[in-house]
Amino acid sequence: MSDVIDMEQMQQWIGKQQQSVDTVTAVPIMALRATLDQPDVNVKAGHQLPELWHWLYFLPLARQSEIGADGHPERGGFLPPVPLPRRMWAGSQFTFNQPVRVGDFIKRTSTIENVTHKTGKSGDLVFVRVKHDIKHIDRPQDLNTTANNTIAITEFHDIVYRQAPQPDAKPPAPKAAPESADWEHLIETDDVLLFRYSALTFNGHRIHYDRRYVTEVEGYPGLIVHGPLIATLLLEQMRKALHDAVITHYEFKALKPVFDTHPFYACGSVKPDNNTVQLWAKDHHGNVTMEAVATITKHSA
After folding, report:
1. pLDDT per residue as tens digits for the range 256-288
2. What one-character DSSP code corresponds to residue 12?
3. What 3-state class would DSSP assign to 7?
4. What whole-number distance in Å separates Cα of residue 87 and Cα of residue 108?
5. pLDDT less than 50: residues of the chain
6. Helix (H, G, I), strand (E, B), or coil: what is residue 249?
């Protein structure tokens, strides 16, 4: 293990908690619908929030003076100060217990579940696992009371920190996408789409909108499409294919970055049990960049 990573110090963050409250309002929903080029809808009180759209709320409100060179808040606050230059959203797992609707007051309790170190072919890797519990509350200013004891959404968020690759480092072997799919949709991204999604989620990470930074400093060939955006697009295409699907569980894992230099494909297939849907993002070479699984309770056969 690299002597610059003090895992004893990093693991002191395990158990650290952070709470925040928010009100589910209509404008972020309409803004994301516009960003995803969806038809205009009059979003009113009681409108149900689609799964994963809770990312439009509980935005990270770090002061400008607290932002690091990569556009993220400086390390050592809620998240541990991992001394590795690259930070990526590796994946997430969700359980959806109750709907969240426009007009609801909600509270999120975030807990650092684990901090682990691994050594891979590219060097040191540090994984931080965060649990988010989202509940309804009676009043937006009250962190201490909830409208009921049921957690509406449970989310586990896996973050990976890694070293910058060496110039002669070989990329990991790609994983070929399945040969067939029940649906496959071409997704084209550009600077404006990525900027708008960054703005909606208040994500300052420069790899998503600053082409000079991402190519000259981090050494990538183009802007990186947000992992959460890809995960959302996979679900949106599933909803188009399975109109009455009710999602109870969802999980995704990022396998390799997607760049705005080429389009990618959002694909999916329903398993024989009719309750499990395999989803994946496929790049222009036919390799999987993200794999996901949704569990649903009903859909049209």
Report:
1. 999 999 999 999 999 999 999 999 999 999 999
2. G
3. helix
4. 23
5. 1-3, 300-301
6. strand
Check residue 167 and give its pLDDT. 66
Q: Which amino acid appears at position 223 of this protein? A: L
Say if CB 49 and CB 29 are below 8 A apart: yes
Structure-token pair, residue 81: 């100060």
Read off the pLDDT of residues 150-165 as tens digits, 9 standing for 90 and up.
Answer: 799 999 999 999 887 7
Residue-level pLDDT at 1: 38
State the virtual CA torsion across 136, 138, 143, 146 in degrees, nearest 10: -50
Q: Are 134 and 55 in contact (CB under 8 A)?
A: no
Which residue type does 173 have?
Answer: A
Q: What is the pLDDT of residue 141?
A: 67
Ranges of H-type helices in the chain:
7-10, 26-35, 191-200, 211-216, 227-241
Answer yes or no: do 143 and 271 share one domain. no
Residue 241 in tokens = 């294919």
Which residue range is the domain that position 160 belongs to? 1-170
247-254 and 86-96 beta bridge pairing:
antiparallel
Question: Is the separation of the CB atoms in 255 and 289 below 8 Å?
Answer: yes
Instruction: Kindly give, in sequence order, each residue whose CB lies less than 8 Å from that of residue 280, ignoring residues fewer than 6 positions away.
Output: 177, 178, 234, 267, 268, 288, 290, 291, 292
Beta-bridged to residue 134, according to DSSP, are 108, 153
Residue where one domain finishes, among candidates 116, 151, 170:
170
**Do 146 and 135 meet the contact criterion of CB atoms below 8 Å apart?**
yes
| Residue that is last in its domain, among 130, 152, 170 | 170
